[in-house]
Amino acid sequence: MLFFMVNTTILFSQEYTISGKTLNESGKKLATRIVLYDKDKRFIETLSTPNNGKFKFKKIPNGSYLLNLYGDDGHSGTEKVSIDGANVSGLELQLSIVPDQPQLSVKSTGEGAEINWRQLSDILEYVIYRDNNEIDRVTNTKYIDKVIPGKTYAYNILPIKNDQSNGTRSVTEYGKRLMPFPLNIKAEANKNMVTLSWDEVKDATGYKIYRDDELIQSAPENSYADYKLKFETEFNYSISTLDHQSEEGEKSNNIFITTHPEIKRPKGLKAEGGENQVVLTWKEADNSIKYFVYQNGVLVDSTNSLTSSIMTEAGSENCFSISGVDQYGSIGPRSDAACDKSVFSAPDTVLTSNDKRNNNSISWNLVEGASTYNLYRDNKILINTSKLEFVDKLLKWDTEYTYHLTSLTDEGSEGPKSIDYIQKTPPIYIVNGVLIDENGEKDNVDQAKVFLYDSLGTTLLEEFVVSRNGKFKFENEIISGDYTIMAYGNGSGNGGGRVKVINQDINDLKIDLSTEGLRPTIKVERGVGELTVHWTDIPQAKSYNVYKNDRLIQSVTGDTSYLDIVAPGIEMTYKVMSVDIYDLEGPESNKITEKSSFGPPETTISILAGGYTTEGSGRNINLEWLPVPGVENYALYRDGELLIKQSETKFEERELEWNTEYLYEINSIDKEGVEGVNAKYNIKTHPEVFAPDIKVQSEINGISLSWDPLETIKSYKIFRNGGNIADIVVPEFVDAVTPGIEYCYTVALEDTHKTVGPKAEIKCGKGYFAPPTNFTAKVIRNQVTLNWESISGASGYNLYRNNELILETEDLNDFKDEDLEFDVDYLYEICSYDKEKYEGPKVNLEVKTHEKVLETSLFADVDLEKVSLRWNKSNLKVDHSYRIYRDNEILDETQDTSFQDFVPAGQYLCYIVRVVDKFGTESPSSNKECKKVLVNYPKLLSVTGDVKRVLFGWKYMIGAVQYNIYSVDKETDSLTLISKTKGNFFQHQDLNFDTEYCYQVSCTDADGDEGPRSPTMCGWVLPPPHLTLIERRFVESSGNNQLDGRENAWLMYKVVNDGKSPARELKPWLKPLGETMTSSLKIDSVSMIPVLDIGDTATIQFSLYAKLKVESQRRYFKFFVEEFTGEDLDPDTISFKTLEVEPPNLVVTDFSITNDWGQNYIPKNETAMITIRVQNLSTGKSDTASVKFRRDESFISEDADELHQLKFINAGEYIDFKFEIMSREEKFTLYLELYDYFETRKTIPLYLETMKHYKSPEEMVVYETPYPSDLIVSKEINTSELASNIPEASVGNDILGVVLGNRNFNDPKIESPQSTGEDVKLIRKYFKDLFNLEDHSIIPSQYWLFDDGITSDEFSTIFDPDFGYIKKKIISLLEYSEKESMDLMLYYSGEGTTYKKEKVLIPYDADSNKEHTFYPISKIYENLARLQKMKQVGEITIFMDVDFNNKSFEQNIAQVIEEDNKKKKKKKKKKKKKKKKGASDAEAVVLPKEIEPPSSITAFYASDINQLSYDSKESPNSIFTYYLLQGLKGDADNGDKEITISELHDFIQKNVKSRTTELYKNLPQTPILYSADPNRVLYRLP
């Protein structure tokens, strides 16, 4: 391998990795699902580890992150990780097992945050929390929270178990609702531009625009212009919305639009001067139906012909250009013209305002024609926008900003700036204050917190922590206004107040604190060896500090009592202080001193249960207790009354009341007879179990039993006809029975203590038939259609309307109820009946008929721009609308009773209105109203005096077919019609000089109706100019007064206007004389001079340029200047000389080697210096030449100095180039590409070897004249046995070779074969030597073209059957060779795998997350099959040195199991069949279908799909390619000098399988062949 040793600084994006492994509670590796969030709770990625627990997150920027961890069997955990300029690795994350904790998976969707979890056992329901607030309870394991988009929420799930206890709350996951896609997306095409607009989405931070499903741009606003598209092409667009975390929601539906055909630029524009006019002619432009003529950038004419006569305004700059107009009204590019482009003025009405914060609003008026606007702040551009307003946000406070605007054309030309507008942001102020305690002191207030809110006290603006002296200060964005201050003191109390800031700071603000309501009151309750402190609740308290003997013993949260375990008989003093939400203590409570007492005996109390109520089960009580050491007697109380004092430890109570609660108390009596603290025991006897009162109800196909429930009942025993049929836990039961048969029932109750009560009274009943199902109704106007489904076994059905029977049927399933009243409610009921006509229950349906829709009355008015419609409001009560029709086509639908139709003038239009109710029923038509808008007088009307004429121009008016021009007598105001025209310009000719003429213009529509006339406009006539040439010069840059090759020069003329009026439209041009003009001389045309005022001079400069290969001769030209009025300049003749250039000849004349030891050889694996000499072996000099180093495939890095740009190298001069090399191979090649400014390109190879002696730099030669013609400084080195003695075969048809190798991958984890480079090089050599192919007959034509790897896009480009490399090369080779057809032979070396159950090649950019980055074998076959459909393509043979088991992906490798030798011996020997001619010797192989090609394609594969392919240990080739080359070389021949498909395959398979079995035992490599014609002859040996 070779390395170029250079010092290069490379900047990479600052992204890092987080890696480690996950473990269970025992430290064993655990497969885990990991969810990664950033510090803003934005979801980054979910990753599932393999069983070894290893994980790695890539491309993670600096910041803090949260990892949620989930494993099998309830394992979970969380971990916080921070990245600070380095990778985080070696993490060992331990998960704990929590079996009753849900494991959440939250997915953000367009519908809401979708939460999923696995079902846990023994769970009653799940409580869903959003941001720690309960939002719902569910029993399933999926929930969609339909929140508002634009905010991220935290989610938890708490399981509630069947025994009402809580499970473990889940780990917090985060989700949101994705933003909806925009609505009302509109696309408008203009030429090759598409303008998109859409409705704004609330809270959106931006939008992503997709063209043809590829992202093209992100836009902050709700519009976008897509420029420079392909003409006459359909595009589809979709848009998604970005939320607060720049995450996009769903894309909108595609909207399709086609760009217009390209309007070609008009060419050949010529102007011929005549009297007071210019006649313009030009050539037809493609896709134009008419043409616009521009004067000084202003449209002055529109015509359908290719000629126009234009009158121009005197005294102004004028130039002409032509543009085509297509069928859509789009204007194409203008023709060449020497003129300045016009720009738009800035908006003249600009308003600025401030929102009383640090945001300024700027709005401005529309400038007609302007495409966009540039808004500047303090002379720096702020935004370019097509809107008319902008909000400048987050500015500095108390700062004055200066704004101005400019307008831009469609081409982006910017106009003059507007005047400056100044807007100031408001100042901010400081509030200084002090907290005063109840004693009026400030020094006692410390550790307090002060909060500043808005005037409503709802929005927190700032907070301040008081450390001492009670002082506080607010200084964060406080402007003039009202504020609320709230203070919380540490023991000093709370306080607050309102403050008003008026244009100045506030100092010495005093806030009084008070302890009222903050001091708790305590009491102490005695207990056995314990004291319980109770206190009153303080609403403002977050917690309470409990003190014993003035020492803090406990901080209590969520409770108002504290149990303190103490020794009996010792006095303790207690107090309590509250702590607020800001961790500040309030004032102390009262103090209480108390001591504890001796304990009572430990007593067990129980109720007798499990029997019958008659035996007293549920109301007899037993008490037993353990003796207390040192205590001789015990006192027992029931409900406060002494039952007994005894020394025994057992007592029984009998015949107590049912369902009654009793309080038993027991204490220990010491030797002095003093009773200790009572132990209290509440116990309640069980409710008495009664016989229930059951109700029997007939049901559909069953009988239901019910009775009043009792809380204490555990189960109910159901008896039918004397037999127990069910034990249930609910107070109701439905028994499925056959309808019409009577059954009798009774019930006995058993309570939760298994006490059984008496049976209920026996009751009987029977079941009904069900009513018809799917009973539906459909209403149309005043008729109702009813439908239902039959009930099996029912004899028929009765249908009722408003309790009246309207249908009795045995078989119908529908009924139409017609001629009902409009707008009336009806109740329909239907039931089934049996054979005795006994009806079952009914099912009902409420229906209301529609209102009757009546016509309305229409009224119409008209003005010069619109038709105004109004109509009477309909009396319908339901929602309704009105459809407006114009000329019988629907125009609009509205809920208003008026409509304005802005229509083109000059057409009669007729309108009607129809009322439509919410069901779509349309009324009869209203009366018809017909109106027409008259055409107003022309806009942009201009009247300009010219030489002996007055020119008119105006804007075409929609609807006008003719324009009337009237002359106006200013003295009498009389009018005279002087002309009628259909164009938008007119010239009044043959007028007097220096005379004023006045006019009015009106429009006439197609019906001959004339609109109003314009105001009077006047113009003057001007005198003619005169031109004189006063100077001419030839100027060139070298100073030799002649034009050399690749040199610029100029012809310069100076012309003066010495006439009496401005000269206009001066057209300078040069006329070559004789053989002056050749292709080597370039002369730029000169722009037209719009105007030359009286006495002014114009300098006219023609740029000349001589190309490299200019001829030596003298050039003659005649100079002309044509003027608009015909006052042309007299022609003038000039000449100059050109001189040809001698080309250089850059040659590599020598090279040398030096190493670090001063020797002249290349050490292996060490650096050496190569010096290469490039000399100009010509009498000509070199200008802007280049020298580029190129490498063979053995290089693994690039030299930053590979390309050298050279300037002048004179004849015989040389330049030496040096660079470092390091070799890991014995033989390698360097290439130098020499390119001079005569476009001469040479590639010189340098064949090098390590440890070989070369020249020193001092020994390199310099050539003198005469220079050698053929100079070779390095000869090719033969490097391989395979590469020598290659025969030259003969083939039946020309061959196109395709040799591809992919050994590099963007993903470093993907392993690549080491043999690919050498295999590709040798296959190319065989294609050249064996098949006699040149580089141009091989793809790629240079073997190093894909050295860096073949991407998925390049695979597509190579094999594309319509525009790919192969298709283009076939066409070009056949055209060049004039042959009728050729064969295609393809070789590929690289890696493959299985992706989504399909065999694919692995390109350079392969990414397992992106399907399109893999290239399927089926795609290659599909494209080759399409290519083979070309009549010019014959046989296709492919050699695939690839397996489909790359280690970086999932492998599918099968081992070969040797057959049992004993079984082989038992097999009978079969007679060997005679081999058919041409049959393959290779053993039969089951060919996999996944890589089977079409029958017309022959395919060799290096191995089966469940095998590996190997590199050779003896040569730098793969084993498959090694034997492929040997076979191609002739070893596969059977002696007849013809190599067939089967011969080549048999040779390869035999040797590859034998060699790999020897090396890899039960993992051999078996090449396989697909061929429909294995006897086909590939080629013939000599």
Structural account:
The model is unreliable at 1-13 and 1459-1484 (pLDDT under 50). This protein is mainly beta. Helix 1 (1316-1329) packs parallel to helix 6 (1519-1531) and helix 6 packs antiparallel against helix 7 (1541-1560). Strand 12 and strand 13 form a beta hairpin. The strands form 31 sheets. It has a six-stranded mixed beta sheet with strand order 106-105-107-111-112-114, sandwiched between helices. A five-stranded antiparallel beta sheet has the order 4-3-6-7-9, with no helix packed on it.
Q: Could you give a short description of this structure?
A:
By secondary structure, the chain is mainly beta. The chain contains 7 helices and 115 strands.
